[in-house]
Design a protein that fits this description.
Blueprint lengths: L7 E3 L6 H10 L5 E5 L2 E10 L5 H14 L4 E7 L3 E6 L6 E6 L7 E3 L3 E3 L3 E5 L4 E5 L5 E8 L4 H15 L2
Antiparallel strand pairs: 1-9, 2-3, 3-4, 4-11, 5-10, 6-9, 6-11, 7-8, 7-10
């Protein structure tokens, strides 16, 4: 029997959701449609680039300091009543996704089913999608990793968790 590894690792990390959400909302009108060389731009999937984002940078640096990881932090918005079609992230091994609003749509893996989470390490090399048709806008703080595998990042998170256990 084939045992498949879960494509998601949920964990608790003290990201400051309030300051991240406040900053995202401040720049709400400056998000642009996400573009990927493989697809047409998705008007309902937006990313914020090229802004001096203090909260994002602060939360990212604290996380990297705590875990010894290096990645790229960004904010994303998936419009309410829309879909993020099945895809594999471009040049990305995995990411930390931290949802900034409650009651967000789950992530769906083509080969693993649905996962609801608040903060999780996501395997972005496996095909996944988000059906946000029954939800409002989905706000995401994301740290993408290009140089570490899902397993490598998971090990760093496990080491952080072991260190911080009371």
């Amino acid at each position: 029997e084939l045992i498949t590894m879960s494509p998601i690792y949920q964990f608790i990390y003290p990201f400051n959701t309030y300051t991240l959400l406040t900053e995202l909302e401040y720049y709400r009108n400056e998000f642009k449609a996400y573009k990927d060389v493989r697809y047409d731009a998705l008007d309902n999937w937006k990313v914020l680039r090229d802004k001096p984002l203090r909260s994002l940078a602060k939360q990212y640096h604290k996380f990297c300091n705590d875990t010894g990881l290096q990645g790229k932090p960004r904010y994303y918005i998936l419009d309410g009543n829309s879909m993020l079609p099945p895809h594999v992230d471009l040049n990305t091994e995995c990411s930390i996704n931290h949802l900034l609003l409650g009651n967000a749509a789950p992530i769906t893996y083509t080969n693993h089913g649905e996962f609801k989470y608040k903060t999780a390490l996501i395997n972005t090399k496996e095909e996944h999608s988000v059906n946000n048709t029954e939800h409002g806008d989905r706000y995401l703080f994301k740290i993408s990793f290009f140089d570490y595998t899902f397993e490598e990042v998971k090990e760093k998170i496990l080491a952080y968790e072991a260190k911080t256990k009371v």
